[in-house]
Amino acid sequence: MFQKISLSILIGVLAGVSSTAFLYSLDFVTHLRLTYPMILIGLPLAGLAIGYAYHKYGSTIADGNNLIIDEIHDPKKTVPLIMAPFIFIGTLLTHLFGGSAGREGTAVQMAGSLADQVSEFFKLNPSQRKSLLMAGAGAGFGSAIGAPLAGFIFGMEVIWVRKIRMAAVVECFLASYSAYFISKLLRAPHSDYPEFVFTGFGLKQILWILVAGVIFGLMTRFFILTTHLFENQMKKLIKYPPMRPFLGGVILLIFFWLEGSYQYAGLGIETIRESLTSQMSFLIPFYKSFFTTLTLGSGFKGGEFIPLVFIGASLGSALSHFIPLSISLLSSVGFASIFAAASKTPIACTMMAIEIFGWQITPYAFIGCMIAYFVSGKQGIYLAQRL
Predict the structure, then answer these.
(1) What is the mean pLDDT of the chain?
(2) Which stretch of 104-108, 165-169, 238-242 has the lowest confidence by average pLDDT?
(3) Hey, which end of the chain has fewer CB within 10 Å, N or C?
(4) What average pLDDT does this structure show over 274-292?
(5) In this predicted structure, what is the pLDDT of residue 83?
(6) Domains of the chain as residue ranges with CATH
(7) Three-class HEC string of the chain
(8) How many C-alpha atoms does 183 have within 13 Å on its Cβ side?
């Protein structure tokens, strides 16, 4: 028991430190891109560099989060340590040059890789290794968004579709909260969002949240299908892997120029915040879905969390055009529901919504996440998940 506790805390510390370093670095490159917007011209070359590095030296880690999930299901070999620096640098390059990607997936990969190094060093058996990999994944997720309870659940929920593996409760709990406290101690630059007072929970609100949940689920299914379809077509049409993100970068530049606002480059945190208080156009979530599909499907690096949160919050805000609920309520529920459906983690995302927006959102977030989760279908963004 002492070993389980101490190693779980160690993994949490490693996840917290790596996530914090990544968040500071990401803030720096984002500021650089916004200060010098012409840097977007380098996006195709950044894609070529990322593609070449993974093709030449990182073929064993190209599956990213799916590799970690696969190793939890069927432990065969240690997740390579190079996953951490590769995904760290690859994601920073993607954001520096304006790729439409996220960050939490990067934190999950770094923490998972570091957790497996701990397992290898202490010669743990496959069962113990599974638990620490789950703990690392959850710690990375929770520390990146500043939501330790969500991270605790995420590590156990993301492995299976429609099942939570409770065998690693202690490890996931200790690792997630340790990572969170380390990130707070190091003053990690987490994104902050306004809290709202949600009132009037009744049959009318339930019915409209059910309607919104169905729409969130359909939007998630659209995102998943288009992203996997585009990725598969790129692999089929372009045999030399480094050329995929290069071509993707060229296409992105063309569409950034055609669209004109450049608000879909990078994370888009400001648009998410605006969606929580102002009514948005229905075009915005579809534009973000399109640009993120091009970015991730062509081989750029970064997570899906922030893009999906962007899509969910802006879609929820747009739904207020015809759903008679407040903008803040619909966008907050969309914020959690789209990622819940895409990652197949409705419980973790309900907890995340509570931690970010306050306990009063609980019934709305739970209904929205669960409905979107079921409507979106069996397939999620992580192909290694098992039903």
Answers:
(1) 92
(2) 165-169
(3) N
(4) 96
(5) 92
(6) 2-185 (1.10.3080.10), 203-375 (1.10.3080.10)
(7) CHHHHHHHHHHHHHHHHHHHHHHHHHHHHHHHHHHCHHHHHHHHHHHHHHHHHHHHHCHHHCCCHHHHHHHHHCCCCCCCCCHHHHHHHHHHHHHHCCCCCCCHHHHHHHHHHHHHHHHHHCCCCHHHHHHHHHHHHHHHHHHHHCCHHHHHHHHHHCCECCECCHHHHHHHHHHHHHHHHHHHHCCCCCCCCCCCCCCCCCHHHHHHHHHHHHHHHHHHHHHHHHHHHHHHHHHHHCCCCCHHHHHHHHHHHHHHHHHCCCCCCCCCHHHHHHHCCCCCCCHHHHHHHHHHHHHHHCCCCCCCHHHHHHHHHHHHHHHCCCCCCCHHHHHHHHHHHHHHHHHCCHHHHHHHHHHHHCHHHHHHHHHHHHHHHHHCCCCCCCCCCEC
(8) 31
Alpha-carbon span 131 to 113, nearest angstrom = 13
Name, in order, each residue with C-beta under 8 angstroms of 287's C-beta and a sequence gap of 6 or more. 259, 264
Question: What pTM was estimated for this model as a whole?
Answer: 0.94
Phi, psi (5° rounding) for residue 163?
A: -160, 140
| Gap between the terminal Cα atoms of the chain | 31
**pLDDT average, residue stretch 211-225:** 97
pLDDT reading at 356 higher than 90: yes
How much is the average pLDDT of 165-173?
83
Question: Residue 163 above 70 pLDDT?
Answer: no
Q: In whole angstroms, what is the distance from residue 158 CA to residue 74 CA?
A: 15
